[in-house]
Amino acid sequence: MIDAEGGESVVVQADVTDEGIGVGGAMGDATKLDLAEWNRDMAINVTSMMLMSRHIIPEMRKQGRGSIVNMSSVSGLLGGNPSLLYPTSKGAIIQMTRAMAAQHGPENIRVNCVCPGMVFTPMVRSRDMTDEMRQARINQNLLKREGDAWDVAHAILFLCGRESKWITGLVMPVDGGTTAGKADRPALKADTLAAETTGKPKL
Fold first, then answer.
1. Where is this region: Disordered (predicted)?
2. What is the rounded distance in angstroms from the CA atom of residue 183 to the CA atom of residue 125?
3. pLDDT tens sequence across 146-166
């Protein structure tokens, strides 16, 4: 890709690689989004990561080992995004991770995936986020505190290191428990609770 644009690509010895790239992409549902934008943004979010692996895996094969960490998002696990493209592309990365783990595990090349939640970063800060918006984001996770880039970085470091040498195909949310459920789930009604405990509805 770099060579095709007139540049010069150089592949060096690599034990680990963290593959992270993405754009919010084309907005709208399937009936409204622009197809050219869809193709462009899927190429950015998904194809680019496949191409990185295409060039790095041969170098890992020479060494007889390697660790690849693909970056996805909790949107790839949950969906529910105003954009159709973003969660679709992030979900594709999750399945690509699993497929690659199966394909390259016998070569001692591990492939895992990190799915960050809504962490607070300088880029997020630059988007005119109000204090109310920031608090609303925090309220969505079970720990009720804000994550940052270091939380994500530590997960990547773990998956790249010796501590995870027997882990491959893992999809790891780093989201304060957002994908685990809601702590403020409404309590069961008394009659529903009675039916659950006795097997008979309360009359």
1. 181-203
2. 27
3. 999 999 999 999 999 999 999
Tokens 């949107």 belong to 75
What is the spatial distance between Cα 91 and Cα 142, in angstroms, rounded to a whole number? 23
- End-to-end Cα, the chain, rounded Å: 70
- 117-149 pLDDT, tens per residue? 989 887 777 778 888 988 998 999 999 999 999
Q: Are 50 and 1 in contact (CB under 8 A)?
A: no
Residue 110 bridge partners (DSSP): 67
Enumerate domains of the chain plus CATH numbers. 13-177 (3.40.50.720)
DSSP line for 25-45? ---B-TTTS-HHHHHHHHIII
Write out the catalytic residue numbers. Answer: 86
d(CA 130, CA 138): 13
pTM for this structure?
0.84
Tokens of 85: 């493209």
Look at residues 203, 177, 173 and name the one whose alpha carbon lies nearest to residue 191: 203
Instruction: Give the number of other CB atoms < 10 A from CB of residue 99.
Output: 12
